[in-house]
Write a structure and sequence with these properties.
single chain, mainly alpha, about 60% helix
Length: about 100
């Protein structure tokens, strides 16, 4: 029986952990930005400065929309709890 060699590569892996909390919006935005963009250290200094400015702007936009998603999800949970007659729980969620 003949078998062919099969190779697979998944690229670089990294792990970021927290202690007794989830990741903040800024931390998740940083992770997303790092996955999307990489900047070579050998770039021309002017191009490199522009790349870092673009990277910072991308991180700000990603963080904004992550926060919007969180706010909208909390609004949905609040409304569902209210509709099911759990006003006390809904108010707890509203204050988060």
């Amino acid at each position: 029986m003949q078998t062919d060699k099969f190779e697979i590569s998944i690229g670089d892996l990294g792990v970021q952990t927290t202690h007794k909390r989830g990741h903040t919006v800024e931390e998740v935005a940083e992770m997303a930005t790092n996955k999307i963009l990489s900047i070579s250290e050998t770039l021309d200094p002017m191009v490199k400065a522009q790349a870092y400015a673009f990277r910072d702007r991308c991180k700000m936009v990603i963080a904004f929309y992550i926060q919007e998603g969180i706010n909208n999800n909390l609004c949905t949970i609040f409304n569902q709890l209210e509709q099911q007659g759990h006003s006390d729980l809904a108010q707890i969620i509203r204050r988060l």
